User: Fold these one by one.
Assistant:
Number 1:
Amino acid sequence: MSAADWMIVNVDKCFHCGACVGSCPENAIYLAEVVLEFNDKCNRCGRCLHLCPVGAITMEAKK
Amino acid sequence: MKTDYDIIVVGAGPAGSVTACHAARKGARVLMIEKRQEIGASLRCAEGISREGLAKSKIVVDRTWVSAEISGAKLVSPCGNSLRLNERNAGNEVGLVLNRHLFDKALAADAARAGTEIKLKTSATGLIKEGGVVKGVVGTSYGEPFKATAKCVVGADGYESQVGRWGGLDTTLKASDITTCFQYRMTNLKVEPNFCEFLLGSVAPGGYAWIFPKGGDTANVGLGVLGSRLKKKGEVKAYLDKFIKNDERLKHGQPLEALAAAVSVSPPVEKSVAEGLLLVGDAARVIDPITGGGIANSCIQGVFAGQVLGECAEAGDFSDAALQRYEKLWRDELENKLWRNWMVKEKLITLSDKTLDDIVNVLSESDLKSMSVYSLLAALKEKLPDLVKEFEQFI
């Protein structure tokens, strides 16, 4: 499992504003122009979900 | 194709373009890359700036990028008490509402005329390093692999601030130093066309709501909520929709543009320079922690960065000692004020709606000389000394 599997971005909600990117304590998110990419530095802290202005990010529970 | 430069600037916002412009004017070979396909879009800004901020960053006002000239400001307390500051006592702190789509392009055009090469749709995805020293960037350009080398890389990549963290500079923020925002550019409003309005209190917990006129019956209507005050997912937009619905002047308005964004409301970063790397603008967390305004400070830093980098190119010396001159110049100009405003913000976010009502009352009875944070604090120090005692040394 990698972060790309558990971090889910609703592309219909996302404004590609970068709020999650600059707020991530691990620098685990990259905004490729309009696409959010999560890398394996992600430790599921949930800050990006919390700070996203439009609620576009969800996280799947650890299996 | 040319792949070696003196300076590569990552990000073509105001900080990047001003840096590039001043460095190129001194003869530096500058490349500025921008990941979007258009400079100045998409918008992530409420677009207000003071005339003083523009003057300090040596930018001459051009009406083509001005949406509205502002003659005063209005501060509204939670119960609706308001403090009006008109041109007479607002001085040079009052300013303009920009058209950032055009302003950013105008600054990039200045950089281009000074000799900067600009590449759009070109992203940095990492830094080239040799022995701990930054030597260039790798990424993609129009979808193809991209690589370029330079004696110094400038991270002007905004709130996202990736370049700094790749280069080992800590730009991490606490949740209480992040404000997340939502804004509509709205039309069909009944608002004053020359007044900027700031609404305090639980309408926007830990932040404020704003109405910045954009000409005629159009305005930027938005708000920011402090990260540590958010309870539910996607709450910021809900706060804004509620604010608009409850305001008689706004409720018949319709949106022309919607945007989301985050701003840092933090103390200044510990270091903005590493070997072969420096940060400017939002990437260097230089946004004013009270107002959330960042354009002026970004441009001021950009002037210093461009001057220092230009001198480095002239002297052929991009050593750490040479780059440190930038760190000193911007700190001398901005650091005390940023610290003071961060401390004021830390106090402001603890205040109840009742206290905010009292503050606006006190201020409206004072003979304010200007609308600067300094003069507002000085007036409060006289009437409500307990409120300001924690940062008295800055007043």
Number 2:
Amino acid sequence: MPPPVRRIAPTGRPTVVMPPSNGNRHDSPTVIDPDSADALTTPIPALLSPSTETDGHRRLGRPPSTETLERMRIESVWLAYGERWVVRDVSLPVRRGEVLALIGASGSGKTTLLRSLNRLTEVTAGAARAGRITLDGREIGEIEVNSLRRRVSMVFQQPNPFPMSVRENVAYALREEHAPRRARKRRSRADLEPAVIDALRRAGLYEEVAGDLDHPALRLSGGQQQRLCIARALAVEPEVLLLDEPCSALDPISTATIEQLIVGLRESVAIVIVTHNLQQAMRVADHVAFMHLGELVEYGPSTQLFDRPREQRTRDYVSGAFG
Amino acid sequence: MSRAPLTASASPPLAPPAGAILAGRRRDRVGSWPLLDRLAFGLCWAVGVGLCVVTLAMVGFMLVKGVSYLSLSLLVTHPNAAPDQARSGGILDPIEGTLLLTAIGIAIAAPLGVAVAVWLSEHKRPAWLARAVESSIEMIAGAPSVLLAFFGLILFARPALAFLSQTSAGGSVFGKSFLTAGAIMSLIALPLVVASTREALTQIPSHAREASYALGKTKVTTIRRVLLPSVRSNIASGMTLGMGRIIGDTAIVVILLGATLRLEGAGATPLLSTLRGTGVTLTSYVLSNSPAGEGNAHEKAYAAAFVLLVLVLVLNVLALRFGSAGTNGGGRWWRRLAWTR
């Protein structure tokens, strides 16, 4: 018997975490010297819609609603590939209504942790896990893997649309292959059309491809391909969306578009994003977890973690001393 | 030289100042190379040109001879056994035999080859079995077809497999038929289908598979809906190469198809009788009618050889096309993924 669905009260702060944030987190953006290297990574504001905050080091969008709801919980999780434990004793909450960013140097285990959330680590031979990961209170190992992956969907580092049309890429996600043949047949192309368009619209791609949904997906630009991948991931109506460095292969303008998209999706989907880009974490994340060599060093509201890190290692990392 | 002021508005001149050009567009001339290098270069060049000459001579010879003896009536007339060329008929039966045998061979080889390739690329467990399968395919690919044919003859002459061919009045199983020859022919096409399919599958990046898994798709769905459609052109290319091999093979036809003059049916059922009967293909026809054979109709042999050459060339061109083109980026769609550009 699976345990009953347990929902954490929206106002309740998670138990595994740091003291609550102070109120003025959005009034104190980190000051970055415009001549420094950081200024180079900043998207060009003139090319974006002027109403949004895309200063590069200021967070995007409104502060998150207080209506956060814990969906997933990572409890003392250890992850190994073969004999090597690449994630060691990590505990984190994943809540709807906010964006959780995992930051850290290469090899810190953040991608492995992310992949374990929809059991994608299991496709790698020799992967092992200790500790509990729950979705709505239920251990994910007990959930049928394909239905888990529809609930906890994922977008990858490299844009990887399938070699089909834009429409087919999204429709592929929507079709349920395990459904009885008769039920499957009913979902013809016309039936799927509204859902396809809805997913493309949520991913902010519809306006650009509306004229030709049969356009080959591989002829889209990199940023469009990545938004198509997000649309595909959203089409299955996931409850949690995992993003593994979704912008690392993209240019600054596409990155800004996708970041705004992420912030916009926060209210409906719990989002976990792995990123190497500290500015990106500042811009989109509400909570940040800093990992180093498989350990969770510090977890907290993004402003606090970036402005007043409690750990020396976090301080060194966010100031660029290593990474 | 005076330095121009660095202003954003001033556009640079169309060419750098003449004195600033370090070296002209001087080509590396072979004449300036050391003697040994020049000799080696000359040798490479000569070999390349020599190959072209040989190919052109062969194709040209076959073209001239073939066209001069070829006529439309030849293509639609049954061959006859006659000591005189003028009465030996046409090459309809060899053409039919070639097409039929190729169809049977590839119909068996294509699904099996794709299945093996998928298993080798996507599952490959247990590892020892995968290694054994790999080696077996390599051995089949390397085995002379006459050995395969010889083995096939012994295998298909067993009473249990009598339904594939004819049984003589004395009760001994003949073992020679389109079905048995086609089965062995599929073996020589199989490695080509496996190789090209597997090569394409292994080149698909693993995150493309994971993207499908991450949407809650099973492995089978991923293979069927994502992987196989994207290697379609590679499968076609492998099949085409395999068909070329089947069309060009002689030993299997002589040993397992009988290499008769006409398609000799066995039994009364129309199609089945042909399938269980013996026959002839273009290769065996050329063999027996060339000056080396006993048919002694070398004009017909030229014509048949020409048809054979055209068929094989067409298939090779098709294979090249399948390998490089296609609506979804051909066999290498992953090269179109944005991050590889």
Number 3:
Amino acid sequence: MLDPPSRGTLLFDEIDVSGLSEAKRLLIRRRMSMVFQKPLMFKRSVGENVAFGLKVRDCPRTSMAELVSGALDEVGLAEYRDRLATTLSGGEMQRVALARSIVTKPDLLLLDEPTANLDPGAARAMEEIITRLTKSKVTIIMATHDLSQARRLAQRLALIMDGRVVQAGTANDLSDHPASMNVARFLSGEYWQPISSYQGGKV
Amino acid sequence: MDEISAGLIQAVWLIASLDPEVMEIAGRSLAITLASTALASAVAVPLGGLIHFQDFYGKRPLINLIQTLYSLPTVIVGLLVFLFISRSGPLGSLGLLFTPQGMVVGQTMLILPIIIGLTISALGGVNPQIRETALTLGATRSQAIVAIVGEAKPAVFAAVLLGFGRALSEVGVAMMIGGNIRGYTRILTTAIALQTSMGNIELSMALGIILLTISLAVNLLMARLRGD
């Protein structure tokens, strides 16, 4: 959505977004948000970081405070609101990044290896939050290298090898009926390649 | 060493007794420098932003030129501004020569390159991912720029402070454009130059200490405003 696709089309809700005007793209961009592998905090308080997406959408101040508290509660960092975000630990920053992304109630949440840089404890906390989020309306697309994590979290998996989706389906589909020798090898641990997992519905 | 301690004692005395002439000179120094810093910042910070965010032919050489001008000798600025505002110069009709307003113009010219250049550096120092982060959180392109500027705020603040320091401490422009007229364009630095040449070392020391005290006070105030 930030860069035009080099090939093919990009569909969101069955709309081809690649040819849209900047204004229309913005409207669609504002229905999604993303958490990067290494989250970058604005040099402001945790609360202001979480409020960023609301501010750029001209959200009224009164409801902003409430939404920010709600999002921070969701990731278990309510008491961190006034801390300087750049002083937090990696795991805490990642949770703030998640709160910052869900505070605007997006339809689609993109997670790019959100636990890759975290210690096991922080990764688990993150997974628990993501699991809770899957119960809400939001559709999550998460990229991960961790096969067992993908199995734990995802309703649907899409295995990407050499830049192509080689097989998509539930975790059981993939392990019971691997589409190729390579898929089977990968799932048995002989191959180590990126894998994406889909959660929720239509994208 | 005697002169330093005697100067210190006299400085304390001059400040404590609120010596009218010293207060007036110090006040004028501060007023002229604050005016030129404000004027220069109002032009230089947006201009620095424009240069940073635009891609154009000759951008790199322009930045190199601006950085070279950091070390522009104050007497050269004094000379150039003098040429423009002296009676026969293109701006001679404005009557700025030997006035505090003329000094503000000269000091502004002097510190413009510093504030422009350091603003560009400040913005360049912001993690480029800030822009992407802002965009993925729903910012428009211009809101993303505002976010980048927000991240650079402390460094831009430092740029302005450095400009202020250079303007406060310079002698060349003040002497050549202001003319060191008692009660009108005399400021701390030109007063120090004059008193030293007259052999009043202790008074010069005292004025020097006052100059540094003002600088310290402004720095502390700025740091407070910034929330350090």
Number 4:
Amino acid sequence: MSEILVLVDHVDGAVRKTTTELLTIARRLGEPSAVFVGAGIDAARETLAAYGADKIYILDSDALTDYLVVPQAEALAQLMASASPAAVLVPSTPEAREVAARLAVKTESGLITDAVDVQPGPDGSPLTTQSVFAGGFTVQASVTRGTPIVIVKPNSATPEQTAGAAVEETVDVVVSEGAKTAQVVKREPRTKSGRPELTEAAIVVSGGRGTGGDFSDVEALADALGAAVGASRAAVDSGWYPHSYQVGQTGKTVSPQLYVANGISGAIQHRAGMQTARTIVAVNKDAEAPIFELVDFGVVGDLKQVLPQATEEIARRKG
Amino acid sequence: MKIVVCVKHVPDATAKRSFDAADHTVDRAGVDGLLSELDEYAVEEALTIAAAGDGEVVVLTVGPEQALDAARKSLQMGAHAAVHVVDDAVHGSDAFGTSLVLAKAVEKIGSDTSVDIVLCGMASTDGAMGVVPAMLAERLGLPQVTFAAEVTIDSTKVTARRDGDVATETVEATMPLVLSVTDQINEPRYPSFKGIMAAKKKTVETWSLADLGVDPSEVGLAASWTSVQEVAARPPRSHGEVVTDDGDGGRQLVEYLAGQKLI
Ligand SMILES: Cc1cc2nc3c(=O)[nH]c(=O)nc-3n(C[C@H](O)[C@H](O)[C@H](O)COP(=O)(O)OP(=O)(O)OC[C@H]3O[C@@H](n4cnc5c(N)ncnc54)[C@H](O)[C@@H]3O)c2cc1C
Ligand SMILES: Nc1ncnc2c1ncn2[C@@H]1O[C@H](COP(=O)(O)O)[C@@H](O)[C@H]1O
């Protein structure tokens, strides 16, 4: 069986859910090796082992985290040369996708972006599924040159626990001076909302221009459902909700079990970020709003009435 | 200061987009195209930077005949000159091929006076791979500052704010560099009547692969490092039930969720 590298997405060692998804996918293709860049391995070890990492490569050097993209691409190219993996799986964060892009050029390897599913193809190499044109088409593709590098979207697999040997190997990275060009001089962590993370949440409740700027009804329903809160670009552009909560083409792509759109018309760019949700529900006062073309269930009505009633009803049922 | 802005001509997102039945490439003939909206932010940023320091903005587009429209619109917004790389061999190129052609063209544009900034959009609205800027930087051997939501320039130092998933970063780099900007950075201007008239007199250079010294076998569908096996239209979502709220819409909504075991 061949080695599959998985670039770990973590915050100071707290492994994000997408990594457990990538490890699960890697298991289908070969033997998962986690690639852990930066400090915090002590906090990450257990999760990586629980989700099947047979090996953990530890790359801990300030150069890798103090400068954008290039040092990581160099380090991974060195690791690819020594480990000769059968494929490399990368999460779809902005930083990781660019590391993947540079890595692909350096190693002359084919790159597939934003896979929503990855399965072993007839020859064992990854056969990927992508969702393109705002979710209107699905494309199956494979890599024909070099080592397949695949950028995988969140929620592309259900994480499965399988104990991995998690043998650790510290990799000495050599970062060239030329790679230390774009320096991160300040990093301010985002304040946590206390709600589930948007891209990982099983349920997303979002609000648009129809909220008129008051997100309290949306937030209350989200909390009753244990959901993350999302927003349309119109709501973000109006300054009603932070940009990091924007769902859509230029925001986050979400693929939850349930997406509840409130006061959102359903523009193509918004759809691009939520169309793959399992179940879609909308509340909109305009019966002609395009969002109703997508819904499994819709309520034509004023969200200021409908949402509080729904929140109350959930509370009543929970008793 | 010399700034090259890479702009892409894309099929209109609100039109019905599709794939060529024969070779699985994006059908660019069947629908109307336009300057990728996300590249307007790059053009706007280039114009702002240039205006502050007597700079020159050259737009660069790689694509078929119609792609000229994207360059034209950028000229109408205020860019000074345009380069259109058009060659039948480019058809079907992926990000590897595209970034190679862009890199060679940037080098050629910089052969008289060197290029200080190569500006890109955050992603093209059709391919939406968002990897061309990083590949271009790799090929040019330049630093990259990508997904900038705010940029300040102090002589040759570029400082950018990046709004990441878990943190907001401030990044510093020096020119020359590749810079990509998000739709948070500015409000792109509309071409004015004056701008439209002035654009008619601006030069558009048309280059082929031979002009760039790129071997046609390095680009195009055949040189692609990935291969598409299958393309399928996603079955339209089946229409669900839509009720009109007459006093118990909220309860009906919850009833539906409960029926689907979502609560
Ligand atoms: C390049 C590009 C990228 C873009 N990226 C994104 C993106 O990532 N995400 C995104 O969302 N958009 C994006 N957009 C913008 C998109 O085209 C739409 O403009 C935007 O999604 C509209 O937001 P909205 O639905 O909240 O507002 P509107 O379209 O104004 O819709 C508001 C809706 O609220 C309803 N409403 C009003 N009052 C009430 C009430 N009291 N109760 C119930 N319903 C009510 C109205 O009937 C209407 O349907 C992008 C656009 C471009 C050009
Ligand atoms: N054919 C092209 N011609 C000029 N610029 C391009 C082309 N393709 C991509 N770009 C640039 O690269 C950015 C990202 O594109 P992409 O990686 O395709 O999403 C775009 O916003 C453009 O600035």
